Amino acid sequence: MKNVYQSYQEKLRTPDEAVQIIKSGDWIDYTTNLGFPALLDEALARRRDELYDVKIRGNLMFGPLKTVESDPTREHFMYNSWHYSAYERRLSDQGLCNYIPMIFRNLVPYYRHFLTVNVAMMCVTPMDKHGFFNLSCAAGVAKGILDKADVVILEVNEHLPRICGGFDECIHIDEVDFVVEGEHAPLPQFPLGEPSAEDIMIADQIIPYIVDGATLQLGIGDLPNVIGARIAQSDLKDLGMHTELCGDAYYEMYQAGKLTNRFKNLHTNKSVTGIVLGSQTLYDWVDQNPSVTISPLEYVNAPKTISKIDNMISINNCIAVDLYGQISSESAGTRHISGTGGQLDYLTGAAMSRGGKAFICMNSSHRSKDGTLHSCVLPHFNGDIITSPRSQAYFLATEYGVVNLTGCTTWERAEKLVSIAHPDFRDDLIKEAQAQNIWRQSNKR
């Protein structure tokens, strides 16, 4: 049997040598977040003039994507994302990135049953003595994509944490076609933002609904993580973690002695995630930490998995909600902002959990660049992408309160949503509800 180090040396290439395998018309995958293969992307960009119609998929990329930025005409490279980061949103605004609709739990099955991957390229940890590379912070989707690829190229990033896995967190040298090495900049940092007064008020509205021993999912975005950080300062104890994305708020809960996973009835004593993205402190915490495990989102985000966890609390954010309870979390009008992600996964699973609750949070208003105040509770949507249907809207929270829309009629929904809207817009929303025949005359004003 061939020694794993011998196999490694036989497959070792420079980035420029490795990307020679790519042909015009190919579909290339970069997986997600810290799995982004910067050296390979830069090498591929150097082949721009000899390649045409190379289509690239990724998500939550922090950039820069040299392939994309080198080709503003998109004649050579066409980039597409499953979930926008701030960087990808800027690319989209320039016409350089297209969104691919998905629900996170279904991402790998999409690849398995429907998609072509000619070449998959991603960053991994250095190989261990057994011949395994750890898929690190991208393990939630990486293995399924690599399994579908005709050619697998791994880029070794010396800075990535090695994260313990439930399963599919590693790939063996025998499953790899080429390996590249090179120096990398320190991992990008995404620490918690400074909370606004409204963020703190929203967190304080939600905390009374959470019981000791509950398990938390905090969605992608600043607001859920701010809420998590506020929970770390609360009197709650013995909380658990089961989430698609682990950010710094979970580390703060751990540091505060709140995150123990003692009473989780699934994966007891383990914090479970599919993606990790945050500060270097977070990366150091998850590195070879047996209390933190990473597994495919196909399992982590499956409602049947989530529903098995008692007192499962899901906290996600949105951009706007209309008076019918429809939720838009990924676009402002037709301008794409982020993605569906796992919001529907957790709305479904947490609602099925014994004692579970699914929250969607937002500020009641926002200001445009010219300083004009706008309501985030709308009479109805007009071109916005509906992320979560009204039939799956449960708890909605703003700085003005929390309402539960479960089982409510259209007029009850309108009344409740007006009650948590910014006071400056409530009278106008009532008039709109009356015009839409969803306002009962005895409703409170």
Write a brief structural summary:
The chain has two domains: 4-180, Glutaconate Coenzyme A-transferase, CATH 3.40.1080.10; 197-435, Acetyl-CoA hydrolase/transferase C-terminal domain (Glutaconate Coenzyme A-transferase).
Give a quick set of tags describing it:
27% helix, eight-stranded parallel beta sheet, 27 strands, alpha/beta, 21% strand, 445 residues, Glutaconate Coenzyme A-transferase, six-stranded mixed beta sheet, globular
Kindly describe this structure:
This protein is an alpha/beta fold and 445 residues long. It folds into 2 domains: 4-180, Glutaconate Coenzyme A-transferase (3-Layer(aba) Sandwich), CATH 3.40.1080; 197-435, Glutaconate Coenzyme A-transferase, CATH 3.40.1080. It is built from 16 helices and 27 strands. The strands form 8 sheets. Strands 1-10-8-6-2-3-4-5 form an 8-stranded parallel beta sheet. The radius of gyration is 23 Å and the shape is globular. The mean pLDDT is 96.
